[in-house]
Amino acid sequence: MSEPDIPWWHSGVVYQVYPRSFADGDGDGVGDLRGVIDHLDHLESLGADAVWLSPVYASPMVDNGYDISDYHAINPTFGSLADMDELVERAHARGIRVVMDLVVNHTSDQHPWFLASRSSKDDPKRDWYWWSDSPTNWRSVFSGPAWTLDEATGEHYLHLFAPEQPDLNWENPEVREAVYAMMRWWLDRGIDGFRMDVINLISKRLVDGRLEDGPDGDASPHVLNGPRIHEFLAEMRREVFDGRTTPLGEAPVTIGETPGTTSEHGRLYTDPARRELDMVFTFEHVDLDSGPGGKWDVVPVTLPQLKGSLAGWQEALAETGWNSLYWSNHDQPRVVSRFGDDSPEHRVRAATALATVLHLHRGTVFVYQGEELGLANIAFDGPEDFVDLESVNHYAEAVGRGEDPELVMAALRYKSRDNARTMVPWEHGEEERAVLDHYRALVRLRHDDPVVARGDFTLLLPDHEQLWAFTREHGGARLTVVANLSGEPVDVAAAGIELEGEPVLANDGTSTVSTDDVVLGPWAARVHRS
Ligand code: TEU
Q: Ligand 1 within 6 A of 63 CB?
């Protein structure tokens, strides 16, 4: 039940599907569009307002579809354009929007644009990508240098990710127009918006027309939130989205994936008056367990850091801009293993406590497939169990330069993207059902209670090591949320929290108990309304 004057995504929940491991509709062991169509019931019963599909386009699958060779075709493993149209139509019939992944910082090296670009220095598309005879010292996100020599013309091309993912040159207006035309083509087909892959990397910093070395090979200062990024996004908005209405009669939604972005910068991207993006994905909270050495340099995270990060974004975007809220996606390990406790004793409560705090912040909630079942990280025996190129490359590189293989494995077990990419189980035991029921209740609360969509946010007890507590207030009503994010009981009253009013939701079977029961058991979460 959305209020008429706010966009659907203020009270909405987006469900992310990673197509190859969601559901297999044709029996070949790999997930596909038919599988998504077959499980729309699941999405509807969860209350999802939209589904975001990770890439389903034609692709050599070096990075599981984030390397696109034809933006206008569906990878045969996933189905056909007819399946895509059917999915959109059937989702719309249930009031579920379909958001496509837009991967335009780079293409596949098999995309005809790149094949033309690499064919000769004089090709009209040469300048559609970044070519240089004196490459910078940048390292790629997936290990190794970010430049690869192409023998044919004796120059290097830039790829911030795998060598098979060459970066498009957004300085070239022809590139931008080609991307915008492709986006219009998809909107014409009836989709409801885009999740934009690493969109804040598209503007590279040029000094006197040249790219420059980064500190210790770090490309970030030269590619993150670059000098023309706001100009490009505003142009995209004008050229693609202005005046557009989806089949459901709404403006298409725009969601930017923006690593390395502060909340102040997030406010610029999402300020409605600037007409750039509706929301961005922060990486701040999922970078907390990365040390100075980066993603694989794993460091412990404290609860005050984690809740402080989310609260900081709530505050920064309270008046202007809009937050997205997520615990997991296809790039992150499973949240119950990361910030919770995936032991048999605590898994259900930890998963539901984490969900409770996230869903009751202000912003658009994203649920990653399997999170609503409380799925945990998987047990990797050895390096041969990893399939994701990021993990495979990192193991080879780190062990190759002499790091202890056991320590490298420990970091990979904790953080490998493979953790999130296992097939979703469709037969649910008691524990999965318990988590799912709690997710359904949280989504219902968001839909039905304007305090969740609109209310002001105030963090309580910012320094408390076990309790995550906050209030939401709107129109004279107040929700108090308190969760014990630890395995030890906590006396909530002694900590200074008053659980006033009626109990709305709890994950520990106590929603009807009196409010003077003040001790929260391990991973217990409660929501009260006054
Ligand atoms: O991810 C971009 C990103 O910055 C990271 O999350 C990164 O890929 C990785 O997880 C760092 O450890 C996006 C996509 O979500 C990811 O799946 C792609 O591999 C990447 O872009 C390249 O397209």
A: yes
For β-strands 155-158 and 131-132, DSSP reports them as antiparallel
Regions of the chain where pLDDT drops below 70: 1-4, 511-517
Q: State if residue 161 touches ligand 1 by the CB under 6 angstroms criterion.
A: yes
367 backbone dihedrals φ, ψ, rounded to 5°? -110, 125
Question: What is the position in ligand 1's atom list of the atom closest to the CA of 103?
Answer: 23
> CA 58, CA 68: separation in Å to the nearest integer?
6
DSSP string computed for 171-213: TSHHHHHHHHHHHHHHHHTT--EEEETTGGGSS---BTTB---
Close Cβ partners of 93 (under 8 Å, ≥ 6 residues apart): none
Spell out the residues 6+ positions from residue 313 whose beta carbon is closer than 8 angstroms to its own.
Answer: 263, 266, 282, 284, 323
State which ligand 1 atom lies nearest to the alpha carbon of 105. Answer: 23
Separation of CA 71 from chain center:
21
Q: What is the dihedral of CA 185, 110, 176, 210, to 10 degrees?
A: 170
Residue whose entry in the numeric block shows the structure tokens 């980064």: 214
Contact 90, 37 (CB under 8 A): yes
- The helix/strand/coil state of 259 is coil
Nearest to 278 by CA among 89, 6, 9, 3: 9
Q: What is the pLDDT of residues 260-316, one digit of tens each?
A: 999 999 999 999 999 999 999 999 999 999 999 999 999 999 999 999 999 999 999
Structure tokens at 236: 């995209």
CB 104 within 8 A of CB 179: yes
Domains by residue range for the chain, with CATH: 8-106+173-383+420-451 (3.20.20.80), 113-158 (3.90.400.10), 456-529 (2.60.40.1180)
- Cα 139 to Cα 161, 163, 225, 291, 293: the distances in Å are 9, 11, 18, 18, 13
Radius of gyration of the chain (CA): 23
Alpha-carbon span 291 to 300, nearest angstrom: 9
141 C-alpha to ligand 1 centroid (Å):
8
pLDDT of residue 4: 56
Residue positions annotated with a catalytic role? 197, 257
Residue nearest to atom 4 of ligand 1 (CA): 259
For ligand 1, the distance from its centroid to the CA atom of residue 331, given in whole angstroms, is 6
Closest CA to 314 of 378, 363, 273, 365: 363
- Helix (H) or strand (E) holding 90, with range, is helix 81-93
CB of 168 within 6 A of ligand 1: the answer is no
Prediction pTM value: 0.97
Is the beta carbon of 388 within 6 A of some atom in ligand 1? no
Contact 103 CB / ligand 1 (< 6 Å) = yes
- Model pLDDT for residues 109-136, shown as the tens digit of each residue: 999 999 999 999 999 999 999 999 999 9
